[in-house]
Amino acid sequence: MSSLPTDLLVAKLPWWLGYHVVVLYAVFASLAPFLRRGQFAWPLAALGCLGLAWYHIYSFIYDDFIETSDGDVEHYLNNSDIFVNAYRAVTSDKFGWGWSWQLLAWTCTVCFRIWEAISARQEREAGSTKSSEGEAKVDEAMELPTPLQSVWLIVAGFFGAMSTCGFFLFGRISEKSSCESLSSRVAKLSI
Amino acid sequence: MIAINDPLLPIYLQFLISDPFHSALALKSSASVPGHALFPTFLALATILATPTIPSDSTSYTYNLIAMHLLLAVPVVAPLFVREKRDRRNEGAILDVFAVYLLLALLTFGYHVYTSITLLYASYWNPAALVASLIRGFSLNHAQSSIASDAVFAAVATLLYIRANNPDKWTKQKVFWIANMVMLGPAVVLPMWFAMTRVELSKKVAEKPVDESKSPSRQEKRKVKKTG
Protein backbone atom coordinates (compact mmCIF):
# COMPACT_ATOMS: atom_id res chain seq x y z
CA MET A 1 0.00 0.00 0.00
CA SER A 2 1.37 3.37 -1.00
CA SER A 3 1.64 6.23 1.44
CA LEU A 4 -1.28 8.65 1.59
CA PRO A 5 -0.93 11.42 -1.03
CA THR A 6 -1.51 14.37 1.28
CA ASP A 7 -1.77 16.98 -1.48
CA LEU A 8 -4.38 15.00 -3.33
CA LEU A 9 -6.40 14.37 -0.19
CA VAL A 10 -6.26 18.06 0.68
CA ALA A 11 -7.43 18.89 -2.86
CA LYS A 12 -10.36 16.50 -2.57
CA LEU A 13 -11.23 17.41 1.02
CA PRO A 14 -13.27 20.56 0.25
CA TRP A 15 -15.46 18.56 -2.15
CA TRP A 16 -15.90 15.78 0.40
CA LEU A 17 -16.75 18.22 3.17
CA GLY A 18 -18.94 20.31 0.88
CA TYR A 19 -20.97 17.25 -0.09
CA HIS A 20 -21.64 16.36 3.53
CA VAL A 21 -22.42 19.93 4.56
CA VAL A 22 -24.95 20.28 1.72
CA VAL A 23 -26.66 16.97 2.51
CA LEU A 24 -26.74 17.61 6.25
CA TYR A 25 -28.11 21.13 5.70
CA ALA A 26 -30.77 19.71 3.35
CA VAL A 27 -31.74 17.15 5.99
CA PHE A 28 -31.86 19.81 8.71
CA ALA A 29 -33.94 22.15 6.50
CA SER A 30 -36.39 19.29 5.87
CA LEU A 31 -36.41 18.41 9.55
CA ALA A 32 -37.09 21.92 10.88
CA PRO A 33 -40.86 22.10 10.09
CA PHE A 34 -41.39 18.83 11.98
CA LEU A 35 -39.43 20.05 15.00
CA ARG A 36 -41.46 23.27 15.07
CA ARG A 37 -44.66 21.23 15.19
CA GLY A 38 -43.28 18.63 17.62
CA GLN A 39 -43.72 15.74 15.22
CA PHE A 40 -41.03 13.09 15.43
CA ALA A 41 -42.24 9.82 13.89
CA TRP A 42 -41.77 10.72 10.20
CA PRO A 43 -38.39 12.46 10.69
CA LEU A 44 -37.07 9.59 12.81
CA ALA A 45 -37.94 7.14 10.05
CA ALA A 46 -36.31 9.48 7.52
CA LEU A 47 -33.10 9.70 9.56
CA GLY A 48 -33.05 5.93 10.00
CA CYS A 49 -33.19 5.47 6.22
CA LEU A 50 -30.41 8.01 5.78
CA GLY A 51 -28.21 6.29 8.35
CA LEU A 52 -28.60 2.87 6.75
CA ALA A 53 -28.07 4.24 3.24
CA TRP A 54 -24.90 6.03 4.26
CA TYR A 55 -23.58 2.95 6.03
CA HIS A 56 -23.95 1.05 2.75
CA ILE A 57 -22.53 3.93 0.70
CA TYR A 58 -19.34 4.08 2.80
CA SER A 59 -19.05 0.30 2.77
CA PHE A 60 -19.40 0.38 -1.01
CA ILE A 61 -16.73 3.08 -1.36
CA TYR A 62 -14.38 1.01 0.81
CA ASP A 63 -15.05 -2.17 -1.21
CA ASP A 64 -14.71 -0.25 -4.48
CA PHE A 65 -11.38 1.17 -3.28
CA ILE A 66 -10.08 -2.31 -2.37
CA GLU A 67 -11.23 -3.88 -5.65
CA THR A 68 -10.28 -1.21 -8.17
CA SER A 69 -7.13 0.38 -6.81
CA ASP A 70 -5.19 -2.40 -5.04
CA GLY A 71 -4.82 -0.13 -2.04
CA ASP A 72 -3.39 2.80 -4.04
CA VAL A 73 -5.23 5.85 -2.68
CA GLU A 74 -3.79 8.26 -5.24
CA HIS A 75 -4.82 6.06 -8.16
CA TYR A 76 -8.29 5.61 -6.69
CA LEU A 77 -8.91 9.30 -6.07
CA ASN A 78 -7.66 10.22 -9.55
CA ASN A 79 -9.39 7.56 -11.59
CA SER A 80 -12.49 6.24 -9.90
CA ASP A 81 -16.00 7.51 -10.42
CA ILE A 82 -17.99 6.38 -7.39
CA PHE A 83 -21.29 7.70 -8.75
CA VAL A 84 -21.11 5.73 -12.01
CA ASN A 85 -19.56 2.68 -10.35
CA ALA A 86 -22.44 2.55 -7.88
CA TYR A 87 -24.98 2.63 -10.71
CA ARG A 88 -23.05 -0.07 -12.58
CA ALA A 89 -23.24 -2.20 -9.44
CA VAL A 90 -27.03 -1.85 -9.21
CA THR A 91 -27.85 -2.33 -12.90
CA SER A 92 -25.48 -5.12 -13.92
CA ASP A 93 -27.43 -7.99 -12.33
CA LYS A 94 -30.97 -8.75 -13.55
CA PHE A 95 -32.25 -9.62 -10.12
CA GLY A 96 -30.55 -6.62 -8.55
CA TRP A 97 -32.18 -4.39 -11.17
CA GLY A 98 -35.52 -5.89 -10.09
CA TRP A 99 -35.05 -3.94 -6.84
CA SER A 100 -33.26 -0.89 -8.25
CA TRP A 101 -35.81 0.15 -10.89
CA GLN A 102 -38.55 0.15 -8.27
CA LEU A 103 -36.85 2.91 -6.30
CA LEU A 104 -35.87 4.93 -9.38
CA ALA A 105 -39.38 4.82 -10.89
CA TRP A 106 -40.89 5.60 -7.47
CA THR A 107 -38.66 8.70 -7.40
CA CYS A 108 -40.29 9.84 -10.65
CA THR A 109 -43.74 9.89 -9.03
CA VAL A 110 -42.39 11.53 -5.86
CA CYS A 111 -40.82 14.39 -7.89
CA PHE A 112 -44.10 14.98 -9.73
CA ARG A 113 -45.99 14.90 -6.42
CA ILE A 114 -43.62 17.53 -5.02
CA TRP A 115 -44.43 19.74 -8.02
CA GLU A 116 -48.14 19.23 -7.35
CA ALA A 117 -47.70 20.22 -3.71
CA ILE A 118 -45.77 23.37 -4.66
CA SER A 119 -48.39 24.38 -7.22
CA ALA A 120 -51.19 23.82 -4.69
CA ARG A 121 -49.38 26.08 -2.24
CA GLN A 122 -48.81 28.78 -4.84
CA GLU A 123 -52.47 28.66 -5.86
CA ARG A 124 -53.58 29.10 -2.26
CA GLU A 125 -51.19 31.97 -1.71
CA ALA A 126 -52.53 33.66 -4.84
CA GLY A 127 -56.12 33.01 -3.69
CA SER A 128 -55.46 34.46 -0.25
CA THR A 129 -54.84 37.95 -1.63
CA LYS A 130 -58.36 38.01 -3.03
CA SER A 131 -60.47 37.15 0.00
CA SER A 132 -60.36 37.02 3.76
CA GLU A 133 -61.45 33.41 3.56
CA GLY A 134 -58.16 32.74 1.85
CA GLU A 135 -56.21 33.94 4.87
CA ALA A 136 -57.22 30.88 6.82
CA LYS A 137 -56.15 28.73 3.92
CA VAL A 138 -52.69 30.28 3.93
CA ASP A 139 -52.03 28.83 7.37
CA GLU A 140 -52.97 25.45 6.06
CA ALA A 141 -50.87 26.03 2.96
CA MET A 142 -47.81 26.42 5.20
CA GLU A 143 -48.03 22.68 5.63
CA LEU A 144 -47.12 22.35 1.98
CA PRO A 145 -43.47 22.87 1.08
CA THR A 146 -42.25 26.10 -0.50
CA PRO A 147 -40.24 25.80 -3.75
CA LEU A 148 -36.98 26.24 -1.82
CA GLN A 149 -37.92 23.69 0.84
CA SER A 150 -38.75 21.28 -1.97
CA VAL A 151 -35.28 21.74 -3.42
CA TRP A 152 -33.77 20.78 -0.05
CA LEU A 153 -36.09 17.78 0.06
CA ILE A 154 -34.81 16.56 -3.27
CA VAL A 155 -31.17 17.28 -2.35
CA ALA A 156 -31.65 15.11 0.75
CA GLY A 157 -33.14 12.45 -1.52
CA PHE A 158 -30.63 12.50 -4.36
CA PHE A 159 -27.48 12.85 -2.27
CA GLY A 160 -28.71 11.17 0.90
CA ALA A 161 -31.40 8.54 0.45
CA MET A 162 -34.58 8.77 -1.61
CA SER A 163 -36.73 7.15 1.07
CA THR A 164 -35.53 9.90 3.45
CA CYS A 165 -37.04 12.42 1.02
CA GLY A 166 -40.19 10.27 0.87
CA PHE A 167 -40.67 10.20 4.64
CA PHE A 168 -40.07 13.95 4.92
CA LEU A 169 -42.51 14.65 2.08
CA PHE A 170 -45.26 12.28 3.19
CA GLY A 171 -45.01 13.56 6.76
CA ARG A 172 -45.73 17.08 5.54
CA ILE A 173 -48.33 16.87 2.84
CA SER A 174 -51.76 15.32 2.72
CA GLU A 175 -53.97 14.50 -0.20
CA LYS A 176 -56.66 16.75 1.20
CA SER A 177 -54.49 19.86 1.44
CA SER A 178 -53.11 19.44 -2.07
CA CYS A 179 -56.37 18.60 -3.79
CA GLU A 180 -58.69 21.01 -1.98
CA SER A 181 -57.98 23.99 -4.16
CA LEU A 182 -58.34 21.89 -7.29
CA SER A 183 -61.65 20.43 -6.14
CA SER A 184 -63.03 23.87 -5.33
CA ARG A 185 -62.28 24.96 -8.88
CA VAL A 186 -64.00 21.95 -10.36
CA ALA A 187 -66.97 22.68 -8.10
CA LYS A 188 -67.15 26.19 -9.53
CA LEU A 189 -67.24 24.70 -13.01
CA SER A 190 -70.21 22.56 -12.13
CA ILE A 191 -72.29 25.55 -10.94
CA MET B 1 -44.24 -13.04 -5.31
CA ILE B 2 -44.04 -11.85 -8.89
CA ALA B 3 -45.02 -15.32 -10.08
CA ILE B 4 -48.19 -15.18 -8.00
CA ASN B 5 -48.88 -11.83 -9.54
CA ASP B 6 -48.85 -13.00 -13.17
CA PRO B 7 -52.27 -14.72 -13.19
CA LEU B 8 -53.73 -11.57 -11.67
CA LEU B 9 -52.47 -9.29 -14.45
CA PRO B 10 -55.78 -9.08 -16.37
CA ILE B 11 -57.57 -8.17 -13.13
CA TYR B 12 -55.06 -5.42 -12.39
CA LEU B 13 -55.29 -4.07 -15.93
CA GLN B 14 -59.07 -3.92 -15.72
CA PHE B 15 -58.84 -2.38 -12.25
CA LEU B 16 -56.41 0.28 -13.39
CA ILE B 17 -58.11 1.23 -16.61
CA SER B 18 -61.88 0.93 -16.29
CA ASP B 19 -63.16 3.02 -13.41
CA PRO B 20 -60.61 5.83 -13.34
CA PHE B 21 -60.72 6.17 -17.11
CA HIS B 22 -64.50 6.58 -17.27
CA SER B 23 -64.51 9.02 -14.37
CA ALA B 24 -61.81 11.03 -16.07
CA LEU B 25 -63.77 11.18 -19.31
CA ALA B 26 -66.84 12.32 -17.40
CA LEU B 27 -65.03 15.42 -16.16
CA LYS B 28 -64.28 16.65 -19.71
CA SER B 29 -61.31 18.78 -18.83
CA SER B 30 -59.43 21.01 -21.23
CA ALA B 31 -56.51 22.20 -19.09
CA SER B 32 -53.12 20.55 -18.74
CA VAL B 33 -50.18 20.11 -16.43
CA PRO B 34 -47.48 22.56 -17.62
CA GLY B 35 -44.77 21.20 -19.86
CA HIS B 36 -41.98 21.85 -17.35
CA ALA B 37 -43.60 19.30 -15.04
CA LEU B 38 -45.05 16.90 -17.58
CA PHE B 39 -42.25 16.18 -20.06
CA PRO B 40 -39.31 15.88 -17.62
CA THR B 41 -41.32 13.36 -15.57
CA PHE B 42 -41.86 10.99 -18.49
CA LEU B 43 -38.43 11.60 -20.02
CA ALA B 44 -36.88 10.79 -16.63
CA LEU B 45 -38.86 7.57 -16.53
CA ALA B 46 -37.58 6.76 -20.02
CA THR B 47 -33.95 7.29 -18.94
CA ILE B 48 -34.54 5.11 -15.87
CA LEU B 49 -35.99 2.23 -17.85
CA ALA B 50 -33.27 2.59 -20.51
CA THR B 51 -30.42 2.35 -17.98
CA PRO B 52 -29.84 -1.45 -18.08
CA THR B 53 -29.92 -1.47 -21.90
CA ILE B 54 -26.96 0.93 -22.24
CA PRO B 55 -23.46 -0.61 -22.03
CA SER B 56 -22.13 0.40 -18.62
CA ASP B 57 -18.60 1.10 -19.91
CA SER B 58 -19.78 3.60 -22.54
CA THR B 59 -19.90 7.37 -22.12
CA SER B 60 -23.62 7.34 -22.99
CA TYR B 61 -24.19 5.42 -19.74
CA THR B 62 -22.80 8.34 -17.74
CA TYR B 63 -24.72 10.90 -19.82
CA ASN B 64 -27.92 8.90 -19.30
CA LEU B 65 -27.39 8.94 -15.52
CA ILE B 66 -26.77 12.70 -15.53
CA ALA B 67 -29.83 13.30 -17.75
CA MET B 68 -31.91 11.10 -15.44
CA HIS B 69 -31.04 13.14 -12.34
CA LEU B 70 -31.46 16.49 -14.10
CA LEU B 71 -34.85 15.51 -15.55
CA LEU B 72 -36.07 14.22 -12.18
CA ALA B 73 -35.08 17.53 -10.59
CA VAL B 74 -36.77 19.78 -13.19
CA PRO B 75 -40.36 19.59 -11.83
CA VAL B 76 -39.05 20.35 -8.33
CA VAL B 77 -36.64 23.14 -9.28
CA ALA B 78 -38.78 24.82 -11.98
CA PRO B 79 -41.26 26.45 -9.52
CA LEU B 80 -38.32 28.45 -8.14
CA PHE B 81 -38.27 30.33 -11.44
CA VAL B 82 -41.79 29.87 -12.86
CA ARG B 83 -44.86 30.64 -10.80
CA GLU B 84 -47.69 28.29 -11.62
CA LYS B 85 -50.26 30.27 -13.60
CA ARG B 86 -53.75 29.78 -12.26
CA ASP B 87 -55.46 30.46 -15.57
CA ARG B 88 -53.42 27.84 -17.42
CA ARG B 89 -54.02 25.16 -14.82
CA ASN B 90 -57.52 26.30 -14.24
CA GLU B 91 -60.41 24.13 -15.32
CA GLY B 92 -60.37 20.54 -14.20
CA ALA B 93 -56.70 20.37 -13.31
CA ILE B 94 -57.49 17.25 -11.28
CA LEU B 95 -58.05 15.32 -14.45
CA ASP B 96 -54.69 16.22 -15.82
CA VAL B 97 -52.81 15.46 -12.65
CA PHE B 98 -54.87 12.30 -12.51
CA ALA B 99 -53.95 11.47 -16.10
CA VAL B 100 -50.23 11.85 -15.32
CA TYR B 101 -50.50 9.50 -12.34
CA LEU B 102 -52.58 7.03 -14.31
CA LEU B 103 -50.05 7.03 -17.14
CA LEU B 104 -47.19 6.61 -14.65
CA ALA B 105 -49.05 3.70 -13.06
CA LEU B 106 -49.71 2.04 -16.41
CA LEU B 107 -46.15 2.49 -17.66
CA THR B 108 -44.57 1.19 -14.47
CA PHE B 109 -47.08 -1.63 -14.38
CA GLY B 110 -46.18 -2.60 -17.95
CA TYR B 111 -42.48 -2.52 -17.11
CA HIS B 112 -43.15 -4.58 -13.98
CA VAL B 113 -44.83 -7.24 -16.10
CA TYR B 114 -41.90 -7.21 -18.55
CA THR B 115 -39.36 -7.45 -15.69
CA SER B 116 -41.35 -10.23 -14.00
CA ILE B 117 -41.44 -12.31 -17.17
CA THR B 118 -37.74 -11.70 -17.83
CA LEU B 119 -36.76 -12.73 -14.31
CA LEU B 120 -39.09 -15.71 -14.36
CA TYR B 121 -37.51 -16.82 -17.66
CA ALA B 122 -34.05 -16.42 -16.13
CA SER B 123 -35.23 -18.60 -13.22
CA TYR B 124 -36.34 -21.36 -15.62
CA TRP B 125 -40.01 -20.56 -14.83
CA ASN B 126 -39.46 -21.69 -11.26
CA PRO B 127 -41.11 -19.24 -8.82
CA ALA B 128 -39.10 -20.57 -5.87
CA ALA B 129 -35.84 -20.00 -7.76
CA LEU B 130 -37.04 -16.53 -8.69
CA VAL B 131 -37.72 -15.60 -5.06
CA ALA B 132 -34.34 -17.02 -4.01
CA SER B 133 -32.58 -15.01 -6.74
CA LEU B 134 -34.41 -11.84 -5.73
CA ILE B 135 -33.33 -12.35 -2.12
CA ARG B 136 -29.76 -12.90 -3.32
CA GLY B 137 -30.08 -9.80 -5.52
CA PHE B 138 -30.97 -7.72 -2.46
CA SER B 139 -27.45 -7.92 -1.12
CA LEU B 140 -25.17 -8.51 -4.11
CA ASN B 141 -22.94 -5.65 -2.99
CA HIS B 142 -23.24 -2.64 -0.70
CA ALA B 143 -24.55 -0.35 -3.45
CA GLN B 144 -27.24 -2.90 -4.23
CA SER B 145 -28.09 -3.30 -0.54
CA SER B 146 -28.36 0.47 -0.23
CA ILE B 147 -30.78 0.91 -3.13
CA ALA B 148 -32.76 -2.26 -2.33
CA SER B 149 -33.24 -1.32 1.33
CA ASP B 150 -34.17 2.18 0.14
CA ALA B 151 -36.82 0.59 -2.09
CA VAL B 152 -38.21 -1.34 0.89
CA PHE B 153 -38.33 1.86 2.97
CA ALA B 154 -40.02 3.61 0.03
CA ALA B 155 -42.67 0.89 0.11
CA VAL B 156 -43.12 1.34 3.86
CA ALA B 157 -43.35 5.14 3.50
CA THR B 158 -45.96 4.73 0.75
CA LEU B 159 -48.07 2.38 2.86
CA LEU B 160 -47.87 4.69 5.88
CA TYR B 161 -48.93 7.62 3.70
CA ILE B 162 -51.89 5.66 2.34
CA ARG B 163 -52.85 4.75 5.90
CA ALA B 164 -52.48 8.33 7.14
CA ASN B 165 -54.67 9.70 4.34
CA ASN B 166 -57.25 6.97 4.46
CA PRO B 167 -57.70 6.11 8.17
CA ASP B 168 -61.40 5.16 7.84
CA LYS B 169 -60.95 2.78 4.94
CA TRP B 170 -57.53 1.46 5.99
CA THR B 171 -58.87 -1.33 8.20
CA LYS B 172 -60.85 -2.74 5.28
CA GLN B 173 -58.28 -2.02 2.58
CA LYS B 174 -54.99 -2.75 4.31
CA VAL B 175 -54.74 -6.32 3.04
CA PHE B 176 -55.38 -5.11 -0.50
CA TRP B 177 -52.71 -2.40 -0.37
CA ILE B 178 -50.10 -4.52 1.40
CA ALA B 179 -50.67 -7.35 -1.10
CA ASN B 180 -50.37 -4.88 -3.97
CA MET B 181 -47.18 -3.48 -2.50
CA VAL B 182 -45.64 -6.93 -2.18
CA MET B 183 -46.68 -8.00 -5.67
CA LEU B 184 -46.29 -4.77 -7.65
CA GLY B 185 -43.81 -2.71 -5.64
CA PRO B 186 -43.79 0.98 -4.67
CA ALA B 187 -43.10 2.18 -8.23
CA VAL B 188 -46.54 0.97 -9.36
CA VAL B 189 -48.57 1.36 -6.17
CA LEU B 190 -47.74 5.03 -5.46
CA PRO B 191 -48.96 6.49 -8.79
CA MET B 192 -51.86 4.01 -8.79
CA TRP B 193 -53.01 5.22 -5.38
CA PHE B 194 -52.57 8.90 -6.33
CA ALA B 195 -54.69 8.29 -9.47
CA MET B 196 -57.39 6.50 -7.47
CA THR B 197 -57.45 9.24 -4.82
CA ARG B 198 -58.07 11.88 -7.47
CA VAL B 199 -60.86 9.85 -9.03
CA GLU B 200 -62.57 9.52 -5.66
CA LEU B 201 -62.16 13.25 -5.14
CA SER B 202 -63.64 14.05 -8.54
CA LYS B 203 -66.63 11.82 -7.78
CA LYS B 204 -67.19 13.58 -4.46
CA VAL B 205 -67.01 16.95 -6.19
CA ALA B 206 -69.51 15.82 -8.83
CA GLU B 207 -71.90 14.55 -6.14
CA LYS B 208 -71.46 17.57 -3.86
CA PRO B 209 -74.45 19.96 -3.93
CA VAL B 210 -73.71 23.63 -4.56
CA ASP B 211 -73.50 25.72 -1.39
CA GLU B 212 -76.45 28.08 -1.80
CA SER B 213 -75.36 30.43 0.96
CA LYS B 214 -72.19 31.33 -0.94
CA SER B 215 -73.29 31.32 -4.57
CA PRO B 216 -76.64 31.96 -6.26
CA SER B 217 -78.55 28.92 -7.48
CA ARG B 218 -79.61 28.46 -11.08
CA GLN B 219 -83.21 29.30 -10.19
CA GLU B 220 -82.10 32.52 -8.54
CA LYS B 221 -80.02 33.39 -11.57
CA ARG B 222 -83.07 32.84 -13.81
CA LYS B 223 -85.20 35.03 -11.53
CA VAL B 224 -82.61 37.80 -11.72
CA LYS B 225 -82.59 37.52 -15.52
CA LYS B 226 -86.41 37.66 -15.70
CA THR B 227 -86.77 40.58 -13.32
CA GLY B 228 -83.78 42.35 -14.79
Could you write a compact summary of the structure shown?
Chain A is mainly α and 191 residues long. Helix content of chain A is 85%, strand content 0%.
Overview of this structure, please?
The complex is a heterodimer of chains A (191) and B (228). Chain A is mostly helical. Chain A has helices spanning 6-37, 41-69, 73-79, 82-91, 94-128, 133-141, 147-160, 162-172, 175-190. Chain B starts with a helix and ends with a helix. Chain B has helices spanning 2-5, 9-27, 35-50, 59-77, 93-122, 127-138, 142-165, 167-184, 186-207, 218-227. In chain B, helix 2 (9-27) packs parallel to helix 9, helix 7 (142-165) packs antiparallel against helix 8 and helix 7 packs parallel to helix 9. At the A-B interface, helix 2, helix 4, helix 5, helix 7 and helix 8 of A face helix 3, helix 4, helix 5, helix 6 and helix 7 of B.
Key descriptive features of the protein:
A: 191 residues, mainly alpha, elongated, B: 228 residues, 0% strand, globular
- Unreliable spans of chain B are 24-31, 86-94, 212-218
Q: Give the biggest beta sheet of chain A.
A: none
Integer average pLDDT of chain B: 80
Work out the helix count of chain B.
Answer: 10
Distance between the termini of chain B: 69 Å
Order of helices and strands of chain A: HHHHHHHHH
* % residues in beta strands of chain B: under 5%
Alpha-carbon distance between the termini of chain A? 77 Å
Count every beta strand of chain B, where a strand is a DSSP E run of 2 or more residues. 0
Overall outline of chain A: elongated
Cα-based radius of gyration of chain B, to the nearest Å: 22 Å
Estimated share of beta-strand residues of chain A = under 5%
Largest sheet of chain B: none
